[in-house]
Amino acid sequence: MFYDTETNAHGMAHDPFKAIVAPRPIGWIGTKGRDGIRNLSPYSFFNAVGDRPKMIMFSSSGRKDSLRNVEETGVFTASFVSRSLMDRMNESSAAVAYETDEFELAGLTPAAGRIVDAPFVGEAVAALECRVTKVLTLPDTDGNDTDSHAVFGQVVGIHIADEVIRDGRFDLAAADPIMRLGYMDYAGIGPIFELKRPSQRT
Questions:
Q1: d(CA 141, CA 145)
Q2: Most CB atoms closer than 10 Å: which of 11, 63, 80, 100?
Q3: CB proximity list for 183: less than 8 A, separation 6 or greater
Q4: H or E segment and range at residue 57
Q5: What is the distance between the alpha carbons of residues 119 and 112, in angstroms, rounded to a whole number?
Q6: Cα–Cα distance measured from residue 83 to residue 90, given in angstroms and rounded to the nearest whole number
Q7: pLDDT, tens digit (0-9, with 9 covering 90-100), for 130-150
């Protein structure tokens, strides 16, 4: 089949776009407004985008509280979502009033960043502290602003729980990440295997 995305006439029960671009890591973004109110929200448009320096991004569909807070303060955190935290991550995704603290809503511990003034999930096996480098409202092909807003951040601090450090590496099998698929689907990781690049095979 083929369909153009302007008409979006795919004929399916649900739009398959996000199922095709999958799996996607979950950015569990922690922020705090200038008024001190904490916010925690999961974003599936999230990834690492550079390592010299270390950079990540998340994208908000619509102007949500996380976006408001990063624009006000210039900092955020991203906590790692393990399978054991899946239900509480889901709880934190509820559409609630700005004044609602999602850490309290989901029964999570707000841990204070050491470098940035933003909270992260104390129960997470890893978390990144970030300073915002750029916020972009994404344009379409006609140059018109969309309602998608990308936040880029430089990672300035990294927290890792001792129990997921094995043989000098961050052990993903022990960390047990959950990833976002399409629709309401999620997945964990399967067997981990190593695949050397062609230049490393000789």
A1: 10
A2: 80
A3: 14, 18, 19
A4: strand 54-61
A5: 5
A6: 11
A7: 999 999 999 999 999 999 999
